[in-house]
Design a protein that fits this description.
- The complex is a heterodimer.
- By secondary structure, chain A is an alpha+beta fold.
- Chain A has 11 helices and 14 strands.
- Chain A has a 5-stranded antiparallel β-sheet with strand order 4-5-10-6-7. Chain A has a 4-stranded antiparallel β-sheet with strand order 11-12-13-14, sandwiched between helices.
- Chain A is globular, with a radius of gyration of 18 Å.
- In chain B, the strands form 7 sheets. In chain B, strands 3-5-1-12-9-10-11 form a 7-stranded mixed β-sheet, with helices on both faces. In chain B, strands 7-15-14-13-8 form a 5-stranded mixed β-sheet, with helices on both faces.
- Chain B is of the alpha+beta class.
- The chains are: A alpha+beta, B alpha+beta.
- At the A-B interface, α11 of A face α4 and α20 of B.
């Protein structure tokens, strides 16, 4: 790792100032991707501005059918939050299966979605839950937030402060982990909401997280795993790498969608 | 014998320091004035080096030196060598390409060392390493050994035409062909034994210190055999004569074979220390470990196994291409020959066997021995072929094996090995009982109701351990003898230190060897210390690999104990005024048999050192040394049975039951033996299901160069193992032990693959059997 200067910001405005004052600064919010990248010398920011300790970004609130999760909430905090477990257990389940215990106690939801790794778990959940991403400048719908591989709608000095969503009637997450990294080789999050069913796929698309229309359509008529019998997913646009071909990922999307629905229906 | 002696389940003495973070590894060593080395490594799989410019790097802050291969050559440091000569079947010696510690004109794999930077800090060294300007001219690369032999393939070494290192054979080809022609049934298979990255927990490291005042070198290194390292560096690499070179291998965090060899970094750190005038430390990061530790396996094999009408094996024919990587590592040549082809008879009476092996250069990391070394490759091909034959012949896999078992010992195989003892049916019966083999159909039906495909697979392995009789291996081309030495020092107050050449890096020698000593005199275990890993302390040794430490290392200790006991008896007889033949030493005292006259052990020792009252003419002291050279290999064998459940929708395999029944001969410490089997099984199941080293075939880049892509087995991937042992004592060594360190890794891969192919009804499956591959194999069924 090249030398870098670490700053711990105590407020969002301080964080913005610290970044603007730096030669080539970077926000860090857990660093589970950034730090390994720096160790490999593929990134060499002059300054790191840590967002994890900003009080305004902490905390998980559930009130009525509204859920708001601070951007600095760790995966472990999401996994273990009792109120969230009642409102949307699928999201707790998802957080439980991110990485390993070290990752879950360092990594944050804000850091994960800002990075938008094509195999990360949270993007599928946020897209399926029609969540809103709150920043220090604006609110962005999940539909608009995730742009492409490792690319989001965020501007350079824009900081995610929270994500929020309306509690779904039912939700479930089916994940087939990459045997080595435990990222999603393919993960499908399904949510039934008052305005319909949404299903989002991570780990499989060449352009990152996406909604699976065929699955949404089938589940809209009947929110049951059997509704997906015979639904096939085309391999076009899916990734091929040493772990999985596009055809295998297409198969996994259908299988994981079924398992997500089964989990949602308990 | 007793609660701490041979056969007792004693917890490992060394674990206290390991588990409390008090182990001392090479990276813990600090020498005053020590600086840090970083290697400049090739980013290309194959390229010519047009020029190396170190000017800019040398001008950077903190830089003490930037050294290249040209200077290494000028200083007379020799090339790395392979120390086991193999001759091709046409009589020509193996074609060894030049292997410099730092590449000078050409690089042949990604990660090959080209230059070294020594700096005040590791960070400064890294910065400067990036500033070394090397002008490469890229060349086409080949990573697959089969493709490397094809016409028009990129050529690696001028010494090795068509990348062929040797074309070797063993056995009677015409007898085999004739028997196969007349066979009632022949099972043919094409099998790949997947390349593995060793992944020791502690990365390799070296600290070289040249003491100008004494004109003497010290090397702290992650080695399984410090004496061999010193010998090789003195005799071949011209680093320093043996009396001017001390090699210390302190606590070493795992080896699995990968730390047997002398690597460029060790030579370069010693040389650089003299060159720069400062002690030089290098510690690999995990990426360097992936790129440059000697890899394991990587065989492509075609096999034919013939049966007569009564399902008895009549002949085995094997044709193997072995990938050696870009250079020949220290013992690479013996792995796919004398550690592989000589085990192809397995547990079976096969009248005719022939094996041809072509060793091939490719643009990949060097390949050498890795836990099992040749024997896993032999076992995988034989046991998959036997299981397949049983399916083709429509007979039970257990019955087919049973019918062909060797039953009389000693048994001379057609491929050199002479098996001394064994009872293969006992292992098979024990494993089948433990696995409730007869109850499998019911378990399969129950799994089917849950939507899972359940399969069962078996593997009956044999291995050759206790490596090895020096004269025999010398006649087969080995450059060294494979005996072991020991010195037993009884101190004046009766405590005992044992100096052994068997280095311990996970095997538990500090406990098992102490048990052997404690048993002999009935002294408490804590009064026995095992000293190893330092050429200045231990007289000489050949190190730890090939499951040899019990059979060879402990046998040397037994020989030294015999001498100590003989002298102690003479002293005790003199003091107790009895006849020497009446003296018995047990329970920590010498006594006159049949009487109540005793002398505590410490008084015998004290008398030896006060020398006030010794038998006429006896020298003072109680210290004896011995060298033990085995008369034969030892032959551990066993039967493993795996049961798996495959998810038909995803291809994911769960190992739901794994039974291991091993015959290791006599056992010194069952707890440690079980631990060794558990670890070996984890590695073997890892090879079968998870671990696959993958190079990009065009660029030659290592794709699986981190844990993001290379799958190591985790606890959750493995079932709770059911392990047990049977025992036919080894007749060839005084303890009757055979060795247990590699068995798990040798026997388990075919059991797993046999179980999966049974579950999915498709035999076309290669390792690692990842979910994607299993799913694809199931689709081919449809």
């Amino acid at each position: 790792m090249h030398q870098t200067t670490y700053h711990r910001a105590s407020s969002v405005s301080e964080a913005v100032k610290l970044l603007n004052d730096a030669d080539d600064g970077k926000y860090v919010a857990g660093g589970q991707t950034l730090i390994p990248t720096m160790k490999q010398r593929l990134a060499a920011p002059s300054d790191l501005v840590d967002l994890r300790h900003i009080a305004d970004l902490k905390g998980i609130e559930v009130s009525g059918d509204k859920v708001k999760i601070g951007a600095a909430a760790t995966h472990a905090e999401v996994a273990e939050n009792a109120a969230l477990a009642k409102a949307c257990p699928a999201l707790c389940h998802l957080a439980t299966h991110i990485g390993d215990p070290h990752v879950r106690h360092m990594g944050t939801i804000g850091g994960s979605i800002a990075n938008n790794d094509p195999a990360a778990d949270y993007p599928a959940a946020l897209l399926a839950l029609a969540a809103t991403v709150h920043t220090n400048k604006r609110e962005i719908s999940a539909d608009d937030f995730f742009v492409d591989l490792f690319e989001t709608a965020l501007e350079d000095d824009e900081i995610i402060t929270a994500v929020s969503f309306t509690v779904p009637e039912k939700a479930g997450y089916g994940k087939f982990p990459n045997p080595a990294s435990r990222y999603a080789l393919t993960g499908v999050f399904v949510a039934r909401r008052a305005d319909g069913v949404r299903a989002a796929v991570t780990g499989a698309g060449e352009n990152g997280v996406f909604r699976a229309e065929a699955i949404e359509k089938a589940l809209s008529s009947s929110f049951d795993a059997s509704a997906l019998d015979g639904v096939t997913i085309p391999a076009d646009g899916l990734m091929t790498d040493i772990h999985a071909s596009a055809e295998y990922r297409a198969n996994l999307i259908a299988v994981m969608a079924k398992r997500a629905v089964q989990a949602a229906n308990g | 014998m007793g609660i701490e002696g041979i056969g007792a389940r004693v917890a490992r003495k060394e674990d206290k320091r390991f588990l409390t973070g008090l182990g001392r590894y090479v990276d813990d060593m600090v020498v005053p004035g020590m600086k840090h080395a970083v290697f400049v490594r090739s980013p290309h799989a194959h390229a010519a080096i047009k020029s190396i410019d170190t000017k800019k790097a040398k001008a950077m802050p903190g830089i003490i030196g930037v050294l290249t291969g040209a200077e290494l050559k000028t200083d007379g440091i020799g090339n790395l060598i392979c120390g086991w000569m193999i001759h091709s079947k046409d009589g020509t010696p193996m074609k060894m390409g030049a292997y410099s510690g730092l590449a000078t004109d050409r690089v042949r794999y990604v990660g090959e060392a080209v230059a070294v930077v020594v700096a005040e800090t590791r960070g400064q060294a890294r910065d400067a390493a990036e500033a070394v300007e090397i002008d490469y001219e890229e060349m086409p690369a080949v990573t697959d050994a089969v493709k490397a032999l094809e016409k028009g393939a990129p050529q690696l070494h001028p010494e090795a035409e068509n990348n062929l290192i040797y074309d070797w054979e063993i056995g009677d080809a015409s007898a085999v062909d004739q028997a196969l022609d007349g066979a009632a049934h022949v099972t043919r298979m094409k099998l790949v034994n997947n390349r593995l990255v060793p992944n020791a927990m502690e990365p390799r490291a070296a600290l070289g210190h040249y003491d100008k005042a004494e004109d003497h070198f010290t090397l702290w290194t992650t080695s399984q055999n410090p004496h061999v390292a010193r010998l090789v560096m003195s005799a071949f690499y011209n680093v320093a004569p043996e009396n001017k070179l001390r090699v210390i291998a302190p606590d070493v965090g795992g080896g699995f074979g990968s730390k047997i060899y002398v690597y460029p970094e060790e030579i370069v750190c010693l040389w650089a220390s003299k060159k720069t005038g400062v002690p030089v430390k290098w510690v690999a990061d995990r990426t360097e470990s992936f790129l440059t530790d000697a890899h394991g396996r990587d065989h492509h094999t075609e096999v034919s196994l013939g049966f007569d009408a009564d399902n008895r094996m009549v002949a085995l024919k094997v044709d193997t291409i072995a990938n050696f990587g870009g250079y020949m590592s220290l013992f690479s040549s013996c792995v796919p020959t004398y550690l592989y082809a000589t085990l192809l008879s397995g547990q079976y009476a096969i009248p005719a066997i022939h094996c041809n092996v072509r060793a091939v250069y490719t643009n990949t990391a060097p390949v050498d021995a890795y836990r099992g070394a040749g024997r896993p490759e032999a076992t995988y091909l034989l046991e998959r072929t036997v299981e397949t034959a049983a399916r083709e012949l429509g007979v039970s896999p257990a019955d087919l094996r049973r019918k062909n078992f060797i039953r009389e010992f000693p048994y001379q195989t057609p491929v050199i090995m002479n098996y001394d003892a064994g009872d293969y049916e006992a292992s098979l019966d024990a494993a089948m009982r433990e696995a409730d083999y007869a109850g499998f159909p019911a378990r399969r039906d129950e799994a089917k109701k849950r939507g899972k495909l359940r399969g069962i697979g078996m593997s009956c392995y044999i291995e050759a351990c206790g490596i090895a009789p020096s004269q025999a291996v010398g006649s087969l081309g080995a450059g060294v003898g494979l005996w072991e030495s020991a010195e037993v020092r009884v101190n004046a107050a009766g405590t005992i230190e044992v100096l052994t050449g068997s280095h311990s890096h996970g095997q538990g020698h500090e406990t098992t060897f102490a048990q052997v000593v404690a048993s002999r005199f009935g002294v408490p275990l804590e009064q026995v210390s095992i000293v190893h890993g330092d050429t200045d302390k231990v007289q000489m040794g050949m190190g730890t690999y090939g499951s040899r430490s019990g059979a060879v290392g402990a046998s040397a200790i037994v020989k030294a104990l015999d001498k100590v006991e003989a002298k102690a008896k003479k002293i005790a007889a003199h003091l107790l005024e009895a006849d020497e033949s009446d003296i018995v030493i047990e329970n920590g005292e010498a006594k006159v048999a049949g009487t109540d006259r005793t002398l505590p052990w410490f008084q015998v020792a004290l008398a030896a050192y006060t020398a006030h009252n010794l038998p006429e003419g006896m020298e003072p002291g109680l210290k004896e040394g011995a060298f033990y050279d085995p008369t034969n290999f030892t032959f551990p064998a066993g039967c493993y049975i795996a049961e798996v459940e495959v998810d038909p929708e995803t291809g994911h395999t769960d190992v739901v039951q794994f039974v291991a029944s091993d015959d290791f001969g006599n056992i010194i410490n069952p707890l440690i033996v079980e631990g060794q089997v558990h670890g070996g099984l984890a590695q073997g199941i890892g090879q079968a299901l998870l671990e696959g080293c993958h190079y990009d075939p065009t660029s030659g880049q290592l794709v699986t160069a981190s844990y993001m892509d290379y799958t190591m087995p985790r606890a959750g991937d493995l079932p709770s193992f059911q392990v047990s042992t049977t025992n036919t004592p080894c007749p060839g060594n005084p303890l009757g032990v055979k060795g247990c360190g590699e068995a798990g890794a040798i026997g388990s891969p075919p059991a797993i693959i046999n179980a999966i192919t049974d579950a999915i009804g498709n035999n076309d499956l290669s390792m690692p059997a990842t979910p994607q591959k299993v799913w694809a194999a199931m689709r081919r069924n449809q």
